[in-house]
Amino acid sequence: MLDTRAATGEPVSIQGSGAVLEGRLFNPPDAAPRLAVVVHAATGVTQAYYARFAAWLAASRQAAVLTYDYRDFGASARGPVKDSRASMSDWGVHDQSAALDVLCARYPDLPVWVVGHSLGGLCVPWHAQARRVERVIAVAAGPAYVTRHPPSFLPMVLWFWFLGGPLLTKLCGYLPGRVAGVGTDLPAGVYWQWRRWCTSRRFSRPDWGVAMPEPDLTSVTAELSLVAITDDVMITPATVARLADFYPSARTRFREISPQSIGVREIGHLRVFSEACRAAWPLLIGAEDPEAVSVEP
Description:
The chain has helices at residues 51-60, 88-106, 154-172, 177-180, 188-198, 237-242, 259-262, 281-285, and strands spanning 10-15, 20-26, 35-40, 63-68, 112-117, 133-139, 174-175, 186-187, 223-229, 251-257, 293-294. The longest helix has 19 residues, at 88-106. It has one domain: Rossmann fold (3-Layer(aba) Sandwich), CATH 3.40.50.1820. Strand 3 (35-40), helix 1 and strand 4 (63-68) form a beta-alpha-beta unit. A 9-stranded mixed β-sheet has the order 1-2-4-3-5-6-9-10-11. By secondary structure, the chain is of the alpha/beta class.
């Protein structure tokens, strides 16, 4: 078994739209890559979290795997978070597109995959190189809304979007992650746009052509794997299935991963890329399994 505990990758600088992003490139050991993959992170999760998965993917699929941090966050931070003017669409549209551009330019002759976790799976139709992508693996990603959560999770949702989250962001000039329960500090613009999306039944659509460009929803003709986690109360399997509406031209398949199927007690929204859930990784990227269900556009 490949030991990925010390996985770091080689540094890569990504010139984005008004930002320089810090990334890491993981190459297959002792072989030239036959596949190029970019990993788009979830909101508030640094690229370091995906390093072991990236090293495993590089070795298991002979892939060049790029991870990176969004602007004003993680290794890409350039100053105090309260000074950041970044928005959610900066991360999902501009930064993700810049990372995909770098990967496509470096490997012009290789098939390209996108592995997107939560926010990372939402925005491929906005990316300039979307037509180069042969496969999108969207994990725990979907158009969240305040009522699309289990009843037991609603008090947290209401606190985060309507009470504690707005109050903390106004007082601090950014969202203090540890206090808010999301772990890492987020720029105020990221929080406010995230809030606007998740408190609208239409999710991000009111921002199309206003706070973000109009997407070309026909640009993604790739195989789209929608991967839901059965005990995820933030992005439930039903919400993951709704993401197919954002990829009408893709060849879409839906599958669920349960904690029991990989021998752990819980996975939730964020743990699937952790070492403890390593048994899930082949399920995320493997060939189509018999339990996958086709989704009509």
